[in-house]
Design goal:
This protein has helices spanning 15-23, 59-93, 108-119, 143-150, 179-189, 211-219, 233-244, 258-264, 267-274; strands at residues 6-10, 34-41, 98-105, 123-128, 154-159, 170-174, 198-204, 223-229, 248-252, 278-282. By secondary structure, it is of the alpha/beta class. Strands 3-2-1-4-5-10-9-6-7-8 form a ten-stranded mixed sheet, with helices on both faces. Helix 6 (211-219) links the parallel strand 7 (198-204) and strand 8. Helix 3 (108-119) runs parallel beside helix 4 (143-150) and helix 7 runs parallel beside helix 9. The chain is elongated.
Length: 289
């Protein structure tokens, strides 16, 4: 893992996305980085401006196309204004960041995924509601879940809560000895946390040697403790975070996407769908382009 240097923030002006901006204050992010605030107008297509003037198009069809064009332009303008509002808020909260805004007209999840890949961002941040049903809303029912499944970089799903506070942060990190869980510990250890912040290393099932993980987290200035609980890993992480009052959960994930991810199941996706706090799903650092 490397330090976060480029961030993509999904923002639509909703209470949920406002909560995601507030959550950034407790994400341990660097004092200086590049951030892009993106708003997406959910357009299926943007009609060709010349189509309404085509002599082969009937007057009724031309009028319909003209209305579609006007609606699409207005939606894009609204998206730009919303992105600018989000950008202003981020700049107010993080004076050392270089912040720009972007508006696109496309399916929201795919726009975020493609933009993240094109810009080579390290982390996508998006607001997310908690879903009580098993598995959450899965990939067709939630932009945030789709981004989680398909993005090539790490994803932070910020819960919509304004009951956050200043000072030390409490985090839970899942660890099972795998390279994926090691990436989660590394990602957390590379952040800058307020003095007195705590991290609880949670293992489900058999105990795992955690000496190296403790040393790494303590070197990052964190108060590190460990807990081993029996049971399903996702349920153990969610329960421990709720009982301990954690601000966020860090968890690694296999490099699986889409349908394969669903068929094989994922601790990360289950935690992201059902945890009450923010969840950061950590993927290994992207190779240099």
């Amino acid at each position: 893992m490397t330090e976060i240097s480029k961030l993509l923030i999904a923002y639509d002006g909703s209470t949920c996305s406002d909560g995601a901006l507030e959550d950034l204050k407790r994400a341990g992010l660097p004092e200086h980085l590049e951030a892009v605030v993106m708003s997406v107008a959910a357009l299926v297509f943007l009609p060709d401006d010349q189509l309404a003037d085509d002599e082969m198009v009937s007057p009724a069809a031309a009028a319909m196309v003209s209305d579609l064009q006007k609606g699409a332009r207005q939606a894009l303008q609204n998206a730009r204004e919303i992105a600018e509002q989000g950008t202003k808020r981020v700049k107010e909260n993080f004076a050392g960041w270089t912040v720009s805004c972007l508006a696109e007209g496309e399916a929201p999840a795919w726009a975020l995924i493609k933009t993240a890949a094109n810009l080579h961002v390290d982390l996508i941040v998006t607001g997310a509601h908690r879903h009580s049903s098993v598995g959450g809303r899965l990939i067709l029912g939630s932009v945030s879940q789709r981004v989680l499944y398909e993005a090539d970089c790490s994803v932070r799903l910020a819960r919509c809560s304004f009951q956050q506070h200043d000072g030390p942060v409490r985090m839970v990190v899942g660890f099972d000895g795998s390279t994926e869980s090691q990436a989660a510990v590394d990602g957390l250890a590379l952040r800058t946390w307020p003095e007195g912040s705590e991290v609880r290393i949670v293992t489900a099932g058999d105990a795992v040697e955690l000496g190296a993980q403790h040393e790494k987290l303590r070197a990052a200035g964190l108060i590190a403790t460990e807990v081993t609980r029996p049971g399903d890993a996702a349920h153990v992480l969610i329960h421990e975070a709720e009982e301990w009052g954690a601000d966020s959960i860090f968890v690694g994930t296999r490099n699986l996407h889409g349908l394969r991810h669903l068929l094989r199941g994922s601790v990360a996706s289950a935690v992201a769908a059902q945890a009450q706090c923010s969840v950061e799903v950590v993927r290994p650092a992207r190779r240099a382009a």
